[in-house]
Amino acid sequence: MRRGRDVWDVGSMPRMDGRTALVTGAGSGIGLHITRTLSAMGAHVVMAARDTAKAEALADEMRSQMPVSLEVMRLDLADLDSVNEFITSFKIGHESLDLLINNAAVMVPPYSRTAQGHELQWGVNHLGHFALTGMLMDVLADTPGSRVVTQTSMAHWGGRIDFEDINSENGYRPWKAYQQSKLANILFARGLDRRLRGLGFRSPISLASHPGVADTPLFRHERRITYWGLKPFMQDAGRAALPALRAATDPQAQGGELYGPSGFMEFKGFPVRVAPRNNGGDDELGAEVWRLSEEMSGVAFQRQLEGLACKDGGCARR
Fold it and tell me: Which positions are catalytic?
């Protein structure tokens, strides 16, 4: 699956002038580095963030350093009503969307629930992005060459979907719940591309990425001994952003692919195409997760795709 000595970094990126990118979790860590890089390459970047004051301050800082086009919009993925409000506002101001980067995440927090009562990691990392992508699909489908990149994690390697207790009501194990959400991310990215190709869409394509072991604020909930034990294997947020950036911009990237670091155990290194592990490649499991996600989010994603593919009876996007 790998491409040998393939070396890809920011210098390999094409210009992004005239393109619009939406980055979730753009106010810190990997999302901030993705935002900096895409905007520096000419893209107009919509910074979707829960803390808009912090994001606005970061946008002002970036504008002071270089001529970039940035826009801050509020999005709380832990509240599906906020996702709906975001979609309404976004569509008023934007007729196209070239890149959707589903990057925001929480990792091993104390047990809590979203506004709709879902376990927080499942709700933010997967369900919020599932709903967001579904409701943006009409804009993405009308933008030639568009892409959806969903950030998963090496944690998907050990992930299991507990359909009997998806919200961890019968006992919360933070790492197990995180693995479950990250497995859902890779299953969603692959399942979306499979559906798009099956319905004949030219755009968007759907890809996944994982950052390896990244030294970011995600570790704020993890025990200090765990953090320092992993520290030698970590890469900084700038390098950890490269797999998502490659998936988003490399002209050779194909729908359904996963990008991650090239080094030992995929901990760190330059971004290359890698393979999903264990349950990450289970398409039947992915179909079950898709059905559950539609039910939990209230987004009839499959029906919407079918309606877009055959809009006005002409199947114009085929």
Answer: 178
pLDDT digits (tens), the chain, 318 positions: 344 457 899 999 999 999 999 999 999 999 999 999 999 999 999 999 999 999 999 999 999 999 999 999 999 999 999 999 999 999 999 999 999 999 999 999 999 999 999 999 999 999 999 999 999 999 999 999 999 999 999 999 999 999 999 999 999 999 999 999 999 999 999 999 999 999 999 999 999 999 998 775 554 445 554 544 554 556 788 899 999 999 999 999 999 999 999 876 778 889 999 999 999 999 999 999 999 999 999 999 999 999 998 764 444 444
Q: What is the pTM of this model?
A: 0.92
- Report the CATH superfamily, name and number, of domain 10-313: NAD(P)-binding Rossmann-like Domain (3.40.50.720)
Dist CA 260 CA 267 (whole Å): 9
Spatial CA neighbour of 245 closest among 101, 79, 127, 123: 101
